[in-house]
């Protein structure tokens, strides 16, 4: 792979591995607040940065409470005090680790904004990023080490009415294992030593392509929400996709989900990647279907999406399915379910998702896909 700069971040990092790590978390939504709180409790020096000026009620409440967030797990509360909460994206300059938690729809714009503050001694971890490694390669003159996960290790929701006056993150699930990819494979071992200081469940199991296409949201969110568009509109904000779209007995929706997953696995297999199914990728262990239904029926599932114009469609179609379709076209794999879901959502929302969606051409990763083809088939 044609890398710009490969630097071992441990050569310029802390001398003592037990020292707190300086972390900047970009994004003040559910994932950003959860990770910032969890890592603060873990003793790290965390800055939480709001990257936009929309939906700021949680951001300002955290600041009014002297940067305090309550992490609620199994009916008990732990108090996190985040070192700094601001809009200042230049804070990434002093960070050892930068964690990007905003929607992948906005990744390229954010990467352009922060590129001048990044350097080769840093690690950047993108949560659910659909191959954003290539946007960093495209825009960064000094390339940090890029890590991509297929999902957050901590799931749940921010609740502002659980404890009066407090911002509470209610943990719905904390994964025991969170697979990831490291763009600079040559220094993956050293990077994992640093990354596991943040969360011991991080595991270097995926390629860059696998970390993108094995994001469970690309399959579960798109099918569950697109098949439920009339119900979402009729409910006027009172819809829970997992409990309703994936209820036991909803065999038609379940079949569409499985067939979309087959298309994803066919693409992965054609490129010599691990064709992991949705149940393994989503962490549904033991009896996978039983585990999936128990997850869907859990009281921890949030009321969401409340609008058809939610990230369940706007992000996971435009960044996930469009990417899958563009890769499939390049390697000659037919993906009719993928194409149909893109077409339906584009018509329903009145937006051509292919026009601005994430393709291998827009990412600039055609050579990467070609190399996978050459390795697999010699062409």
Could you characterize the architecture of this molecule?
The chain is of the alpha/beta class. The protein has 17 helices and twelve strands. The strands form two sheets. Strands 5-2-1-6-7-8-11-12 form an eight-stranded mixed sheet. Strand 3 (68-73) and strand 4 (76-81) form a beta hairpin. Mean pLDDT is 93; it is low at 1-7.
Sum this structure up briefly.
With 379 residues, the chain is of the alpha/beta class. It has helices at 30-41, 57-64, 107-114, 133-139, 188-195, 208-213, 216-226, 229-235, 241-245, 251-270, 278-281, 288-297, 311-331, 336-349, 353-356, 360-363, 366-377, and strands at 22-26, 45-49, 68-73, 76-81, 84-86, 97-100, 123-127, 145-149, 154-159, 168-174, 178-182, 202-204.
Please give the CATH architecture of the largest domain.
3-Layer(aba) Sandwich
* Spatial separation of the terminal alpha carbons: 17 Å
Total domain count:
2
Q: How are the strands ordered across the major sheet?
A: 5-2-1-6-7-8-11-12
Specify the overall morphology. Answer: globular
* Estimated radius of gyration: 20 Å
Structural class: alpha/beta
Blueprint (SSEs and pairs):
Blueprint: E1 22-26, H1 30-41, E2 45-49, H2 57-64, E3 68-73, E4 76-81, E5 84-86, E6 97-100, H3 107-114, E7 123-127, H4 133-139, E8 145-149, E9 154-159, E10 168-174, E11 178-182, H5 188-195, E12 202-204, H6 208-213, H7 216-226, H8 229-235, H9 241-245, H10 251-270, H11 278-281, H12 288-297, H13 311-331, H14 336-349, H15 353-356, H16 360-363, H17 366-377
Parallel strand pairs: 1-2, 1-6, 2-5, 3-10, 6-7, 7-8, 11-12
Antiparallel strand pairs: 3-4, 8-11, 9-10
Helix pairs in contact: 7-10, 7-13, 13-14
């Amino acid at each position: 792979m044609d890398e710009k700069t490969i630097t071992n971040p441990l050569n310029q990092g802390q001398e003592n591995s037990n020292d707190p790590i300086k972390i900047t978390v970009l994004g003040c939504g559910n994932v950003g607040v959860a990770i910032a709180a969890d890592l603060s409790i873990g003793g790290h020096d965390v800055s939480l940065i709001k990257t936009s000026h929309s939906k700021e009620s949680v951001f300002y409440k955290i600041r009014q409470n002297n940067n305090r967030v309550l992490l609620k797990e199994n009916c008990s509360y732990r108090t996190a005090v985040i070192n700094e909460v601001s809009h200042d994206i230049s804070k990434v300059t002093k960070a050892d680790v930068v964690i990007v938690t905003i929607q992948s729809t906005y990744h390229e714009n954010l990467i352009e904004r922060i590129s001048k503050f990044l350097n080769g001694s840093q690690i950047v971890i993108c949560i659910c990023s659909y191959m954003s490694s290539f946007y960093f390669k495209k825009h960064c003159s000094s390339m940090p080490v890029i890590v991509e996960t297929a999902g957050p290790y901590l799931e749940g929701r921010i609740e502002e009415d659980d404890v009066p006056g407090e911002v509470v993150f209610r943990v719905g699930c904390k994964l025991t294992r969170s697979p990831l990819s490291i763009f600079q494979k040559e220094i993956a071992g050293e990077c994992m030593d640093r990354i596991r200081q943040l969360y011991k469940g991080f595991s270097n199991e995926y390629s860059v392509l696998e970390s993108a296409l094995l994001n469970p949201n690309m399959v579960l969110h798109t099918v569950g929400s697109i098949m439920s568009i009339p119900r979402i509109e009729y409910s006027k904000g009172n819809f829970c996709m997992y409990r309703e779209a994936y209820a036991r007995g909803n065999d038609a929706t379940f079949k569409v989900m499985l067939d979309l997953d087959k298309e994803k696995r066919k693409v992965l297999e054609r490129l010599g990647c691990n064709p992991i199914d949705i149940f393994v990728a989503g962490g549904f262990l033991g009896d996978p279907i039983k585990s999936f239904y128990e997850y869907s029926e859990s009281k921890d599932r949030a009321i969401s999406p409340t609008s058809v114009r939610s990230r369940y469609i706007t992000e996971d179609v435009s960044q996930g399915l469009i990417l899958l379709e563009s890769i499939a076209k390049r390697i000659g794999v037919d993906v009719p379910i993928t194409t149909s879901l893109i077409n339906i959502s584009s018509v329903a929302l009145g937006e051509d998702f292919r026009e601005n969606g994430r393709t291998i051409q827009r990412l600039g990763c055609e050579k990467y896909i070609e190399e996978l083809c050459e390795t697999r088939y010699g062409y």
